[in-house]
Amino acid sequence: MRKMGIMVIVALIFSLVVGTILGGCESADTTKLKVVTSTALIAQIVERIGGNMVDVVNIIPPAQCPGHFDVSPNDIQKLADADLFLMHGWQGEKFTEELIASADNPDLTVVQINVSVGENTNWMTPEVQLAAVDKIVDTLTQEDNQNSTAYKDLADDYKGIITTKGNELETELAQKGLNSVNVMCNEQLNGFIQWTGLNIVAVYGRPDSLTPQVVKDLVDKGREEGVTLLIDNLQSGADAAKGIAEELGCVQITITNFPGGYDNTETWEKAIDYDVELILEAINK
Prior knowledge:
By secondary structure, the chain is α/β, with parallel strands linked by helices. It folds into 2 domains: about 30-170, Rossmann fold (3-Layer(aba) Sandwich); about 175-285, Nitrogenase molybdenum iron protein domain (Rossmann fold, 3-Layer(aba) Sandwich). It is built from 10 helices and 8 strands. Strands 2-1-3-4 form a 4-stranded parallel beta sheet, with helices on one face. Strand 5, helix 7 and strand 6 (about 200-205) form a beta-alpha-beta unit. The radius of gyration is 24 Å and the shape is globular. It starts with a helix and ends with a helix.
């Protein structure tokens, strides 16, 4: 009987220890900051500088145009369960007003992450990516001050990666003499293509804006300026300028304005590597 009593006590102690451990794990999970992001541009930064302190859920698929996104009940639930919603506030994100209202979450903090460096607002360029990191880390530290040091340390690590990759690509691009290559590109790529050094002679909008007259004007401009490359934006229309390129007899490519738009481009540095490689391959044809 005494032996049985000892075994019961040991079992109780074991149960208490396991319960404490599991309870601690459960508590740690529930303390994570729940962040919903409107695009992959914001999501990949939050994931990197938030580490294991945040749970990140993104809404718009990285290959889709924000202006053509339709809200689903699942998206509403994501916001209903979140602590923080980070969005760009772009014209194409008008759906967010309906989404926030439908979520009916009084504890939700909504922050617009609008960044630019001069007139450049393209997040794929290194300088704008750095500005976005600064804005996002400030937002995370305000929402979750107890982890502010960890957020800032991870942000500094990522900014080092951005600076190194930016310098590496800028050196490579500078050696190619791209300012003598005349191109036309989607207007959403303007800041990025300027960063590469290519000479932009005209920009164009989404496929639905390419009326017969607009196409004729672009073809005439392309011939006049000796355009040899047309660059489409995956999220705005993958082959929007394909017909124009055929008329001009030049190369047409489609690059991504968001991490994750193509396979194995889920981070900013993989996406920018993909875009630069595609551009360099095109001008060497």
